C-alpha cells in the first residue's frame, strides 16, 4: 500500500506538466492575442464553475451539469450554447481530473470503461452530425432537465444504499466490455451529443445500480468517460464548424478555474467522503428540473408539463428496474432496502 501511494505521488509530475502546458496556452491567449477583456467580461461563469468543477471531480455529474443550467436558466442563453460550453469546459476540467486520477493510480472499471470509450467515439460523433442538429433548443433543455432530475431523485432516496456498496470492478470482462460498448454508443449519441453530458451518468448507473460497484471505483470511471467524450465532442464540433457564439468567452473565463477545481474535487472527497457532496448535487439536479418546468410552463402548457413529469417518472422506474436486475444477480431480495454499512453480495458483471 505504501509503495502504491508513493508511486502515485511520483507520477503527479505528469499532472503538473499538463497544468503548465494548459496555463501557458491560456496566458498566451489572454496576453499575446489580447483576450483578457473577453475573459474578464465572462467572470460570472468562472464563479459558477468553481462549484461545477468541484462537482465534476467528486461526483458522477460532469461540470456541464452546473454550467448548462447556469447558462440556460440563469443567464437565459440558448440550450445549444449550454451543450457546446459543456463539451468545451469539460475538455479541460474533466481531462485535468482524469489525468490526476490516472497519476494517483485510482482503481477504475477498465473493462466497461474501454467498451464505453469505443461506443462513445462512434455514438457521440454520429450524434453530433446526425441527431443534435435536428433537436430544438426546448427539447435539449427538457432532455437535460429530465435526465438529471431523475438522477437526483434516485440519489435522494437511494443514497444510503448506493454508498454502502464495497464491491470491486473485477468481473466478467467480456460482458462488461460489451455492456460498456452498447451504453457508450447509445448515451453518446442520444444524451452527450444532444446535451453535452449524460454518458457519465449512464456508466455510473450501470456500475453502481446494476453491478453494485464501490463509489470509489464507479465515480472516477464516470469522470474518465466524460473527459473522453468531451474531447470527442470538441473534435466533432470543430470539424462540423457548428460552435455556438459565446462558447469561447465563457470557456476562456472558466477554463483556468476548472483545470484545478475538478482535481480538487477528486482529492477532497477522498478525505471527507462522497455522501455530503452527492446529496447537495442531487438536490441541485432536482431543483433545475423544477426550475426548467417553471420557466417553460407557458410554452409547455398543462400537457407538456404532465409529459415532463411522466418522463421523469419513466426514468426513475428505469433506474429501479436496473436496480432489481442488479440485486437479483447479487442474490439479494429485490424488495429489500439496503441500509448504510450493511453487507451485500456484489455482482460486477452480467
Question: What does this protein structure show overall?
Answer:
Helix 5 packs antiparallel against helix 6 and helix 10 (199-210) runs antiparallel to helix 11. The protein has one domain. The protein has 14 helices and no strands. The protein starts with a helix and ends in a 21-residue tail after the last helix. By secondary structure, it is an all-alpha fold.
SSE order and pairing:
Layout: H1 2-10, H2 12-32, H3 36-41, H4 43-58, H5 64-74, H6 79-103, H7 110-130, H8 137-162, H9 173-195, H10 199-210, H11 215-240, H12 247-272, H13 275-295, H14 297-329
Helix pairs in contact: 2-6, 2-12, 4-5, 4-12, 5-6, 6-9, 6-11, 6-12, 7-9, 7-11, 8-13, 8-14, 10-11, 10-14, 13-14
Number of spatially distinct domains = 1
Give the overall average pLDDT. Answer: 86
Biggest sheet overview: none
Give a count of the beta strands, DSSP E runs of length 2 or more.
0
Order of helices and strands: HHHHHHHHHHHHHH
* Helix share, percent: over 70%
Summarize this structure briefly:
This protein is mostly helical.
For this entry, give a set of tags.
globular; mainly alpha
Amino acid at each position: 500500500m505504501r509503495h502504491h501511494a508513493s508511486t502515485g505521488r511520483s507520477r503527479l509530475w505528469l499532472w503538473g506538466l499538463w497544468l503548465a502546458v494548459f496555463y501557458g496556452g491560456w496566458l498566451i491567449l489572454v496576453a499575446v492575442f489580447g483576450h483578457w477583456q473577453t475573459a474578464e467580461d465572462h467572470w460570472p461563469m468562472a464563479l459558477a464553475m468553481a462549484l461545477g468543477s468541484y462537482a465534476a471531480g467528486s461526483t458522477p455529474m460532469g461540470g456541464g451539469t452546473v454550467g448548462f443550467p447556469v447558462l440556460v436558466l440563469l443567464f437565459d442563453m440558448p440550450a445549444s450554447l449550454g451543450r457546446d460550453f459543456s463539451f468545451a469546459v469539460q475538455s479541460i476540467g474533466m481531462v485535468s481530473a482524469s489525468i490526476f486520477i490516472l497519476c494517483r493510480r485510482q482503481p477504475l472499471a477498465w473493462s466497461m470503461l474501454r467498451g464505453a470509450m469505443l461506443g462513445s467515439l462512434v455514438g457521440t460523433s454520429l450524434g453530433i452530425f446526425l441527431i443534435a442538429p435536428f433537436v430544438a433548443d426546448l427539447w435539449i433543455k427538457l432532455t437535460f432537465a429530465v435526465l438529471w432530475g431523475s438522477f437526483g431523485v434516485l440519489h435522494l432516496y437511494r443514497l444510503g444504499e448506493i454508498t454502502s456498496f464495497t464491491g470491486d470492478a473485477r468481473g466478467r470482462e467480456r460482458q462488461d466490455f460489451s455492456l460498456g460498448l452498447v451504453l457508450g454508443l447509445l448515451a453518446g449519441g442520444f444524451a452527450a451529443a444532444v446535451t453535452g453530458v449524460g454518458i457519465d451518468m449512464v456508466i455510473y448507473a450501470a456500475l453502481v445500480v446494476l453491478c453494485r460497484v464501490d463509489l470509489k471505483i464507479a465515480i472516477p470511471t464516470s469522470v474518465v468517460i466524460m473527459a473522453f467524450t468531451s474531447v470527442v465532442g470538441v473534435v466533432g464540433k470543430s470539424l462540423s464548424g457548428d460552435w455556438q457564439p459565446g462558447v469561447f468567452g465563457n470557456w476562456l473565463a472558466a477554463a483556468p478555474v476548472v483545470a484545478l477545481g475538478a482535481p480538487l474535487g477528486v482529492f477532497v472527497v477522498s478525505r471527507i467522503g462522497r455522501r455530503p457532496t452527492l446529496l447537495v448535487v442531487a438536490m441541485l439536479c432536482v431543483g433545475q428540473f423544477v426550475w426548467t418546468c417553471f420557466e417553460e410552463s407557458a410554452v409547455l402548457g398543462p400537457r407538456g408539463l404532465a409529459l415532463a413529469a411522466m418522463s421523469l417518472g419513466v426514468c426513475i422506474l428505469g433506474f429501479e428496474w436496473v436496480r432489481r436486475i442488479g440485486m437479483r444477480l447479487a442474490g439479494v431480495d429485490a424488495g429489500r432496502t439496503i441500509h448504510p454499512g450493511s453487507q451485500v453480495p456484489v455482482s460486477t458483471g452480467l
